[in-house]
Amino acid sequence: MSDIFGIMSLAGQALMTQQQAISVTSHNIANVNTPGYSRQRLNMTTNIPMESSVGPMGNGVSGVSIERLYDRFLSSQISNESQGLGQWEAHKDAVQMLEVIFNESDGPGLSQAMSKFWDAWQALTNNPSGATERQVLVTASQVLANTFNKLDEDLNGSQQNLDLAIQGTVEDINRLSEQLADLNEKIISSEIGSLSANDYRDQRELVLKELSVLIDINTFEDANGAVSVLTGSGRPLVSSDQFWQLSTEVNASGLQDVVWVDNSGGTLNITGDISGGKLKGLLEARDGIITDYMTRLDTLAGFLRADVNLLHQGGFDLNGIAGEAFFIGTGTAADLEVNPNIVGDLDFIAAASDPLTFPGDNRNAIEIANLQHQLTMSGNTATYNDYYSSVVRDVGNEVLKSNSYYNHQSDMMAQLENQRESVSGVSLDEEMINLIKFQNAYTAAARLVTTADEMMQTIMQML
User: Fold this and answer.
1) DSSP conformation letters of 301-367
2) Assessment of whether the complete model's pTM goes beyond 0.85
């Protein structure tokens, strides 16, 4: 009788184990399109044999654990490359904005405005007292000043947009850090004993990947299964079920710096310590790339203003009076402006070099017109147009460089994701084969239960 009951028990365990295997397979199939999901597998082992008159006898099968098929080293590589991808994506987006701002091929730009400005001075040399020529010069000068103003405004706007993006990224980092702390708590409570929290671990891995796109991080897992996250500079973001926040503070330039907030509410500026991720790319674009082009634009506007004013103030207008400053402002692109006195009275344009030879004297106008071809920029090695052409050229080079690095990082990520899929991804063909295999095993175990029952009925009839 005990042998028949043993067969019944063995068959029941087999039914339960194959049913568990079918459930795991069904879970895999259901999550075939779930982002970050890692394929699972029921690990089976034979039970401890039972002693019998003929020696140890097999005692069936049990499901001992549900394993998550996961490559830790590959996950670390994906995290590291995600930091570079986020950084160069931010770079790419920023320089594409610059490309639009300094676009000289679609509509009027600064190069065209400067050319018309010099052409207007050249036309004035042909008729230094002509009202039409003087009006054309004032109009071209106003267009030039307004173009400088607009470029500076656009660059400032791009910088402010990047500033807002930095604040938004910091908020995303805080949100993901809080999610990680919550998932840590769930994993710790779920894995008491020998249990596993595979689905929570998949969710945590996906959040870690999202976080690594935003900022450079270092991670390690403790004995309880909780993951700790540190910034690249070593400041904690997550430890077990605790998390720390980042924030922003306005610096001397009126822009946002990134700060780490400790448990007492104190802050530590970590802007200079951030070395990867989208946050690094945004900071480099805002404080490096955009600021550099604003400085170069100010340099061009400042030299042009100073050189034209110097010559204009050395000449004489149609009233025989020494010329005023032609441009006013502080010497930056933001406030470059044609002198309102000259706009209001065209006679104030100083085309003559001698107060006794006007109105036909055009020598001062010739000197100003000739500034176009003089090497006044970059240590007296470039003209104004050459200098601005180098600015536009460098923008194009920045676009090419950023696109190249971004494409490289994208290719690297695609390759790593393909490798991850080969390890952790769900193959429907494989799962269907497993489903048929476990179904057949389940059917056979059920047949074993029927056989044992028939044996029991036979014995009962003999009594």
Assistant:
1) HHHHHHHHHHHHHTSB-TTSPBP--SEESSSSSSS-EE-HHHHH-GGG---BS-TTSTTT--HHHHH
2) yes
